[in-house]
């Protein structure tokens, strides 16, 4: 009886462990970008990206210089991500924002750097649109994302007035994303 019980327990444990879904290294969610999450510390980047190149990072010294970004490149040299730590030169600092540079990174609704405004608007509720000097920033709180669209993508009458309130209906469906950020408000 004990052998049968332990055998059943072992089979159940094997089944449960094989059912565990592995994290997609290119999936973007509200609290993660691939294997990075909103509590990832700078010192853990070498573990998360063991086969990739991490610039501005010195083991034990966080990163050097006054530049507050860390670039992640794949084996071929293609830039994947640009990471911004919360604190400069602190290896225990968490990542506060991630700029997506590679089209393989996608949300579960298939939004990537190759998406258009129409794709974003159809997939998510737009939280706000900020009118800046040369661009508009479209915020999607559902995934902590900011999408920057160059004002050159807007009709001419909307490009130069910073006081103008730009709404979703003003942005052409085909407007391309210039920058795609995931922002984490960590303490």
Structural commentary:
The protein has 187 residues and is α+β, with helices and mostly antiparallel strands. Helix content is 16%, strand content 26%. It has helices at 2-19, 45-48, 117-123, and strands at residues 27-28, 32-33, 36-37, 53-54, 70-73, 79-85, 95-100, 106-107, 128-131, 135-140, 145-150, 179-183. The radius of gyration is 21 Å and the shape is elongated.
Give the secondary structure arrangement, pairings included.
Elements: H1 2-19, E1 27-28, E2 32-33, E3 36-37, H2 45-48, E4 53-54, E5 70-73, E6 79-85, E7 95-100, E8 106-107, H3 117-123, E9 128-131, E10 135-140, E11 145-150, E12 179-183
Outline the low-pLDDT stretches: 5-12, 57-64
- Overall spatial form: elongated
* End-to-end distance: 54 Å
Mean pLDDT comes to 85
Estimated share of beta-strand residues: 25-35%
Q: Strand order across the biggest sheet?
A: 4-5-6-7-12-11-10-9
Helix segment count?
3
Mind summarizing the main beta sheet? Answer: 8 strands, antiparallel
SSE-based structural type:
alpha+beta
Order of helices and strands: HEEEHEEEEEHEEEE
**What Rg is obtained from the alpha carbons, in whole angstroms?**
21 Å
What is the helix content?
10-25%
> How many strand units?
12
Quick recap:
The protein is of the alpha+beta class. The chain has helices at 2-19, 45-48, 117-123, and strands at 27-28, 32-33, 36-37, 53-54, 70-73, 79-85, 95-100, 106-107, 128-131, 135-140, 145-150, 179-183.
């Amino acid at each position: 009886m004990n052998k049968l019980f332990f055998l059943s327990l072992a089979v159940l444990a094997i089944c449960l462990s094989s059912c565990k879904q592995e994290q997609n290294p290119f999936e973007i969610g509200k609290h993660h970008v691939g294997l990075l999450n909103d509590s990832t510390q700078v010192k853990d980047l070498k573990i998360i990206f063991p086969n990739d190149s991490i610039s501005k990072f010195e083991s034990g010294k966080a990163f050097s210089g006054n530049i507050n970004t860390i670039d992640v490149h794949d084996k071929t040299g293609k830039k994947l991500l640009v990471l911004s730590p919360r604190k400069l030169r602190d290896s225990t600092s968490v990542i506060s924002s991630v700029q997506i540079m590679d089209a393989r990174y996608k949300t579960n609704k298939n939004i990537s750097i190759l998406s258009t405004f129409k794709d974003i608007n159809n997939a998510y509720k737009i939280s706000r649109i900020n009118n800046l000097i040369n661009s508009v920033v479209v915020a999607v709180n559902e995934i902590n994302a900011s999408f920057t669209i160059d004002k050159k993508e807007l009709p001419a009458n909307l490009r130069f007035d910073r006081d103008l309130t730009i709404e979703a209906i003003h942005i052409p469906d085909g407007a391309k994303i210039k920058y795609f950020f995931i922002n984490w408000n960590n303490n």
